[in-house]
Amino acid sequence: MAGVAVSTTINGDNVEYLCQPDETLLDVLRDRLGLTGAKEGCGTGDCGACSIILDDRLVCSCLVLGAEAEGRRVETIEGMAHGDRLHPLQQKFLEHAALQCGICTPGFLIAAKDLLAKNPDPTEEEIRFGLAGNLCRCTGYDKIVRAVQDAASVMKGA
Amino acid sequence: MRYIRPLSMEDAVGQLAGSSGTAAILAGGSDLLVRMKGGFIEPDLILDIKAIDGLSEIRETAEGFSIGAAVSCALMGESAALKGEWPGVVEAAKLIGSKQVQGRCTITGNLCNASPAADSVPALVAAGAMALIAGPAGRRTVAVEAVPTGPGKTSLAKGEIIEAILLDRRAPRSGDAYLRFIPRTEMDIAVVSAGVNLTLDEQGVVKSARVALGAVAPTVLLVEEATEALIGRKLDEAALERLAKVCSGACRPIDDKRGTVEFRRKVAGVLARRAATTAYARAGGK
Hints:
The complex is a heterodimer.
Chain A: E1 4-10, E2 13-19, H1 25-32, E3 51-54, E4 57-60, E5 73-75, H2 88-95, H3 105-118, H4 124-130, H5 142-157
Parallel strand pairs in A: 1-5
Antiparallel strand pairs in A: 1-2, 3-4, 3-5
Chain B: E1 2-4, H1 9-17, E2 23-26, H2 32-37, E3 45-48, E4 58-60, E5 64-68, H3 73-78, H4 80-85, H5 87-93, H6 99-102, H7 107-113, H8 120-126, E6 130-135, E7 138-143, E8 148-150, E9 153-154, E10 161-168, E11 174-181, E12 192-200, E13 206-214, E14 221-222, H9 224-230, H10 237-250, H11 261-282
Parallel strand pairs in B: 1-3, 2-3
Antiparallel strand pairs in B: 4-5, 5-10, 6-7, 6-10, 8-9, 11-12, 12-13, 13-14
């Protein structure tokens, strides 16, 4: 099986890789590029743990082929902090203890970042609806919602 | 296995027609990749249609809307013009999956996946939507209800690809609506669903009506008796009751873990009635 040559942009960097035709972008990120922030929860687009942003759209990277990233813009959790400076959402997730086991957290952070980029002042209902594609079995969601609310107010003030 | 991304519809059709083995068309991939992962399909050829010119666009023409086969449901939700004229179609498309899935899934994929419970299909059937199909013999247009022929099966011939879903421009005093029943509040597969599309005259009397039911038969049902129940009347209690009765009667559902035959029949009537009430109000009926 010949590989597919892909040239894409990940977190602002030009990246080239070879992948198999049926290899998901999630597997490419984790196994070929060492970007292990996106997690495989279900592998079928139900849990959101592998969320990334592809050309300004929030998607599950388990439902995208590596080959499809050709010429597109990929944003992953690894691009969220600037060096040691955490994104306000990351900071607020820590402060509110909006995580326990942490498997869902990268997906939640990416989904929340996408949500606030499109709606900087969401209601609680909009946050809950916007994050409904991300499953968390630890927190009961409440702390996550509080963290996103707090981050939104910080980011508005910034 | 090969992955190709043709730039023109002619090339795509040629590649598909000339392929041997199993070929799969990839737009949003929200069904295809799940089926590949589950081992239900192992395509020899994956044909990604997203680079084909115009396929990722919603085009507005004098005749209506052309929704390219690679247009995501998220993009449909962002089109004020489409939402303004076909709110029922857009609300159905927006019910498919999570935000992550919305960014990828398409109504053409929803149609071709041919699930009896597909959310966008009853709304499209009620809307009288047409599928523009490109194939080795040229282009043809068929009513969307002619595409799925049973669970997972379509009437598309080898080499044929749906290029766009076409919706007419709206007549004055028209409205459509889609409702589904699921046991949770969001993100589930329809147990029963109903799409209703109405056009009224100046007095608020129904001039034309199309009612479609999902998840109550092997394919989405266009309920002809429902049209008869509504035309020539205002949407009064008697008309609504008649509508619910004929919709319940038209169902040919299965018993499964999501709902019994009896439950689906009953709920089909209730949903048709409620969707008709919303469509009527959207058409300006009082």
